[in-house]
């Protein structure tokens, strides 16, 4: 007798913020999904994410806001500085002590965000070491080919597989554009540091670079550095954690950066994987004119609309967009189910 191949209802490719957010949103609406992740565990690359009030609204809808509030400090101020003159350019107050002034801003540790989004998912929702390499259409289903040679059929396919998305490629979306800039990020565990008690986000605008620090919790400081690699040696340094740190420090030390901020980068642990990555984005007209969905397949998150990190709004927008998409998907899935039920009834009557 021929064994029937199991057909999945919903497959999500990628277990990043958007993949897990989608799976959790569907789960809260009573829809089971399977998440295929190419890595062998959740990837916390990127260290931390600044979250503004719009992100908190989305996190609350997904039911993970309070879990994350417990482990991350409320940031009190944003300070924007010129690294050329050393002057403060602008300041904004978000909160006083634990009192929010209508602006909830925190810097989330990426591993804790992924943990929050995955902890309520039913067991076996995420299948690790499952890299999708090729997609085929088989009637109305999508046949997914995995790197280990196995295949899997699904009724609905959602590509949350980041900037190198195979689903976006399959949909025919054009390749991403390089912004000309690269970014490096890191984290420092500094329980006793005076800087970690200041609870602020501080930006520094310098000559062809932008740097920033913020606090995740009492002990941890997140930093980032975006810059224009200007020659071959700088491009090559991107691959090497030691060289990239030297390059960042030389740029910071030749400008008017506070000494304690430079020390944060100087003391960051290289074994955490300090790297630099080119910043890419999708040309907005490609979203308007390209296929962001086809029948029962679509993309979300960075696979859909990757942005440069200038506004610190990527995850907020990604989550808000997910919630809108979720409503549309749930409606679509319910319509599909009703159509299927009617078809089975008609068949029963005929038989
Ligand atoms: C320097 C920098 C700073 C940033 N700072 C901020 C910030 O402060 N605030 C903010 O909101 N955002 C920030 N962002 C952006 C934010 O990190 C991204 O928008 C967000 O992580 C995208 O999530 P995602 O789930 O769509 O994609 P990803 O996080 O890239 O997740 C994709 C997942 O899919 C998996 N995958 C990929 N291909 C396959 C495949 N073929 N098969 C199976 N699995 C696959 C990957 O392993 C990965 O786990 C920053 C980005 C950069 C570069």
TrEMBL record:
It comes from the Eukaryota. The keyword Ribonucleoprotein does not apply. InterPro entries: FAD-bd (IPR002938), FAD/NAD-bd_sf (IPR036188), MOase (IPR044560). Residues 9-264 form the FAD-binding domain. Pfam families: FAD_binding_3. Belongs to the 3-hydroxybenzoate 6-hydroxylase family. This is FAD-binding domain-containing protein.
């Amino acid at each position: 007798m021929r064994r029937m191949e199991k057909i999945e209802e919903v497959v999500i490719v990628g277990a990043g913020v958007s993949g897990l957010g989608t799976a959790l949103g569907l789960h809260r609406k009573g829809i089971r999904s399977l998440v295929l992740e190419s890595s062998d565990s959740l990837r916390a690359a990127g260290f931390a994410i600044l979250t503004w009030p719009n992100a908190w609204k989305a996190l609350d809808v997904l039911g993970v806001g309070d879990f994350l509030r417990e482990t991350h400090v409320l940031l009190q101020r944003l300070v924007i500085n010129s690294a050329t003159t050393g002057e403060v350019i602008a300041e904004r107050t978000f909160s006083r002590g634990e009192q929010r002034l209508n602006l909830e801003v925190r810097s989330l540790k990426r591993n804790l965000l992924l943990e929050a989004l995955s902890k309520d998912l039913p067991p076996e929702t995420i299948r690790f070491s499952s890299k999708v390499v090729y997609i085929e259409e088989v009637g109305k289903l999508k046949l997914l080919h995995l790197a280990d040679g196995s295949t899997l059929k699904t009724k609905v396919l959602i590509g949350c597989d980041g900037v190198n998305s195979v689903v976006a490629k399959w949909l025919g979306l054009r390749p991403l554009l390089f912004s000309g800039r690269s970014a490096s990020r890191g984290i420092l565990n500094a329980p006793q540091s005076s800087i970690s008690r200041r609870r602020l986000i501080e930006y520094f605008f310098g000559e062809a670079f932008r740097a920033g620090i913020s606090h995740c919790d009492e002990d941890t400081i997140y930093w980032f550095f975006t810059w224009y690699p200007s020659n071959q040696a700088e491009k090559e340094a991107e691959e090497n954690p030691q060289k990239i740190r030297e390059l960042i420090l030389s740029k910071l030390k030749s400008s008017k950066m506070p000494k304690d901020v430079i020390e944060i980068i100087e003391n960051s642990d290289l074994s955490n994987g300090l790297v630099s990555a080119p910043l890419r984005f999708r040309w907005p007209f490609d979203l308007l004119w390209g296929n962001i969905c086809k029948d029962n397949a679509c993309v979300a998150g960075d696979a859909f609309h990757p942005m440069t990190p200038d506004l610190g709004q990527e995850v907020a927008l990604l989550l808000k967009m997910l919630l809108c998409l979720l409503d549309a998907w749930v409606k679509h899935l319910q319509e599909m189910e009703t159509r299927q039920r009617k078809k089975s009834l008609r068949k029963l009557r005929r038989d």
